[in-house]
């Protein structure tokens, strides 16, 4: 029986010979057939990456993206037959990929594109009506110990670079020529209905949402933002979550949302 790890290694590495027990149905050269199959697999996986990270590809050009993608595929081959799940580690790979270091914002652009994909495939959820939040604020003297449950599609990007504006410029929003790549930015990513929304937010608002996603109570999240020396407008942040239809519920201490 053919050794599967040996075959997988030969499939991704053109320098490795085919397994010794590899045969073909028509007697053709196994090395030639494997090379054809290897090329087809690589083309397919590069296509998946190109579809998931189109702005990343535009920023570096087709040839560079292809070379970088080949390195990624060999370093991190798919672990699932579901191709929509492939590419989770691409942003971190780019961050460690020496030839890409002249574009320090590139990993976060890739992270944003991955967050958009995961939001697209996340579960649906009904947002909390604004009236319900108003009632809670009126009836509960202290919501600090409560936990905010956010939409399953909700995520936060926090970048030391202008990754959000760079991505947006490739969607026709703003001009690349007017962007300072070194200006840090944050954004919410969510999908209230069918379309994925990328919502730029200030650093404090992004940090608050990240702390809430991590499971902090409302008071703990606010405290963490203030300890970071950031100026937070909590009312505006909560109103923004309501507008984005990202706030699903406010849960009292000890209560687990269904």
Automatic annotation (TrEMBL):
<protein>
    <submittedName>
        <fullName>DUF2063 domain-containing protein</fullName>
    </submittedName>
</protein>
<feature type="region of interest" description="Disordered">
    <location>
        <begin position="1"/>
        <end position="25"/>
    </location>
</feature>
<dbReference type="InterPro" id="IPR018640">
    <property type="entry name" value="DUF2063"/>
</dbReference>
<dbReference type="Pfam" id="PF09836">
    <property type="entry name" value="DUF2063"/>
</dbReference>
<feature type="domain" description="Putative DNA-binding">
    <location>
        <begin position="4"/>
        <end position="94"/>
    </location>
</feature>
<dbReference type="InterPro" id="IPR044922">
    <property type="entry name" value="DUF2063_N_sf"/>
</dbReference>
């Amino acid at each position: 029986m053919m050794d599967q790890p040996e075959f997988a290694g030969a499939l991704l590495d053109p320098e490795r010979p085919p397994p010794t027990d590899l045969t073909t149905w028509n007697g053709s050269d196994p090395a030639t057939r494997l090379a054809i199959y290897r090329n087809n697999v690589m083309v397919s996986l590069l296509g998946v990456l190109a579809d998931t990270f189109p702005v990343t590809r535009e920023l570096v050009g087709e040839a560079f993206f292809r070379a970088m993608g080949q390195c990624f595929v060999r370093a991190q081959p798919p672990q699932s037959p579901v191709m929509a799940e492939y590419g989770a580690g691409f942003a971190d790979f780019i961050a460690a990929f020496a030839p890409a270091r002249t574009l320090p914002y590139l990993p976060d652009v890739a992270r944003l594109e991955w967050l958009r994909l995961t939001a697209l495939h996340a579960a649906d959820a009904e947002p909390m009506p604004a009236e319900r939040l108003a009632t809670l604020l009126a009836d509960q003297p202290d919501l600090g110990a409560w936990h905010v449950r956010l939409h399953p599609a909700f995520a936060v990007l926090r970048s030391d670079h202008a990754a959000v504006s760079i991505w947006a410029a490739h969607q026709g929003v703003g001009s690349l020529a007017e962007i300072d790549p070194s200006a840090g930015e944050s954004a919410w990513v969510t999908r209230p209905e069918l379309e994925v929304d990328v919502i730029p937010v200030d650093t404090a608002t992004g940090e608050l949402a990240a702390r809430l996603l991590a499971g902090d109570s409302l008071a703990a999240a606010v405290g963490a933002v203030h300890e970071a020396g950031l100026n937070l407008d909590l009312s505006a942040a909560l109103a923004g979550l309501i507008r984005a239809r990202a706030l699903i519920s406010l849960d009292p201490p000890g209560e687990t949302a269904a």
